[in-house]
Amino acid sequence: MPITKRSRLVASTIAVVLGATALAACGSSDDETEAESGPVSLTYWTWTPGMDKVVDLWNDGPGKKDQIKVTVKKQASGDTLVTKILTAHKAGKAPDLVQAEYQALPTLVSNDALADISKDTGEAKTRFADGVWQQTTLGTDAVYAVPQDIGPMMFYYREDLFKKYKLDVPKTWDEFAETARKLKKASPDTDLTTFSANDSGLFAGLAQQAGAQWWTTEGQKWKVGINDAASQKVAKFWGDLVKEGAIDNQPMYTPAWNKALNTGKQIAWVSAVWAPGTLTTAAPDTKGKWAMAPLPQWSGGENLTGSWGGSSTAVTTDSKHQAAAAKFAAWLNTDDAALQALAKESGIYPAATNAQTSGAFTNPPEYFSNQADFYTQAAEIAKSTAPSAWGPNVNVAYTTFKDAFGMAAKDKSDFVAALNTMQDDTVADLKKQGFGVSE
Amino acid sequence: MSSLAIRKASPAAGTTPGTAQGPPLRRRIALVPTITLLIGAIYCLLPVAWVVIAATKSGSELFSTFTFLPGSGFADNIKDLSAYRDGVYWKWMGNSALYAGLGALLSTVVSAFSGYALAIYRFRGRETIFNVLLAGVLMPPVILAIPQYLLLAKADVTDSYLSVLLPLILSPYGVYLARIYATAAVPADVVEAGRMDGASEWRIFTRVALPMMVPGLVTVFLFQFVAVWNNFLLPYIMLSDDEKFPITLGLYTLLEQGANTPALYTLVITGALLAVIPLVALFLVIQRFWSLDLLSGAVKS
């Protein structure tokens, strides 16, 4: 898609120029923020639609009492925002609060852009699943963000067409492959799903489910495990399906993909909890015909899922009012009223566990009105999220993924070779950036 | 293949008189360039047609009906677009008009001054300045955006209208064009004659030279206007307040709403279509200034 290309161009341009201008790491002044006194004004970069209305609740409520006013500056999401934050940080002008995807946190932290807010987040930790919270601490004692939304992965399928073709909902990935083959036999023009390389988060989530740990630390060094055994298993699995023609190899999020979903040419989608929103626009005519099930497992007794998407609220080191900003971040993502508003105005799936089944989440999404227990099931699935491991150059790995796997999917060639390319490029980039890498 | 065809065709088009080819041959070969141009036109216009037709489709029609079948949602799309966050789209449109209009105007004025000075006056370092400018022409503005941001951040003017306008004012390409044009269109004799008559330099510039430079300056203005209207990276880095966004950035935020929110395709497509209209209108209106070329000469050659 041209937009993705453009944003990638923007991101890489900014990255290149930033690299050139970064002469020396700026000696950041980590002065302790004094106890707040007098009115405080904070700016907040976020892409969440409707966030201004949620923030109004703060400004008229707890914020008014504490004299902390937050102003939303709506941004475009994605890797480009990370580079924009880093650019602003170079000039010491990053906003007080930023929204950041979990996989972007190590990048921001390694550039010294995010403040440690462990002292000011209070009881927040207890409101989140351990696996979610761990992503904001990066395995240290510090806390760099408060989780906002999560994207536990699930299996979506056309209930009516599964019945028509006499297919069972696959419980394991082996069954998934069998289902794909069976469908091909029953209806050669129909595909179970497609392998798409245009969103790296999908593959990362699938690898995470299989137990992959892409970035870990070993002493003072990073260890990159993008081509570890688990990831190779996932890559080989999908590569084989594409090669034998059991599933399609066309990218998702294209008009052709929308059409395939809308007309029943593709009858399933491995996605995450936010899929109802996407399906509403992609396949409007099939509303009420889909159902959601847990992701297929690698072995029978397991119960694990990966995550695709999700973001957090972080406080920057440039903020002059870090304690106040942290207070707001904690309120936004743990306060019941705030979480209900976020669900209603912005349609996010909250990271805070007790919000996942309350209020806005007692009824299923409109598109899934046929599945009454949608959110009860989703909350169960969310609990089974496997731990994730992000590093400081996820963007590089993701870019290589799109290129290497995009090519491999198109040519129906070796996915494991593409995975190795991804590993090599990521390691090379880490070294280039000056990180220690253990081989 | 097409370049070969054009090369074969060029003698027939009369550029090299005296070749042996006669008139009948000429007509036959002209077919190839015509077809080439037609293919080129279709190549360029097809996406435009797509945008026009897609803008008429409602959300449910967009990806499900035949691509070039007009839909039924145009009025609704415009209504939704205007209603989106209390009409922020029109605010973006206004911002774009301000950045492009004022920015192009200021940059044309600066280009006119400097181009004229470089063309008419002889002073030490003139060629050096001009060569530096030429190097500036070769430098893609994208590369300058970050340094400009860091500089303006020092001056504490980022995230303001000024931060987008300031870097636009000096356009090396505009100055270059203005100089070339002034050299060609303002004869030294005319300037000399003005001096003999006792006119001040300022008066010669405004009353004599400027009218002669109008077609060139119109070109500079148009170039700058289009460049600023389509500019993405500079405002992207400079601005964080979306009330100050130009249209390019605004539409981008509509597309990139985060993974859990679908992109607002219908709004973006309709918005993109409406965003082109001012550019087309500007071209149609300003086009006639180019024909002034013939009238604004002063010296018979």
From TrEMBL, chain A:
* Cited Pfam families: SBP_bac_1
- Please provide the record's keywords in A-Z order: Signal
Q: Which Gene3D superfamilies match?
A: Periplasmic binding protein-like II (3.40.190.10)
> Which InterPro entries does the record match to this protein?
Bact_solute-bd_prot1, SBP
Top-level taxon of origin:
Bacteria
Identify the stretch annotated as signal peptide in this record.
1-24
| Official protein name in the record | Extracellular solute-binding protein
What's the source species for this entry?
A: Streptomyces cupreus
TrEMBL record, chain B:
Cellular location(s) = Cell membrane
Q: Transmembrane region positions?
A: 29-53, 97-121, 128-152, 164-187, 208-229, 263-286
Swiss-Prot/TrEMBL keywords: Cell membrane, Membrane, Transmembrane, Transmembrane helix, Transport
Q: Which GO terms describe its cellular component?
A: plasma membrane
Per the record, membrane topology reads: Multi-pass membrane protein
Q: Where is the ABC transmembrane type-1 domain?
A: 93-286
- Assign the protein's first listed, main location to one coarse class: membrane
What is this protein called in UniProt? Carbohydrate ABC transporter permease
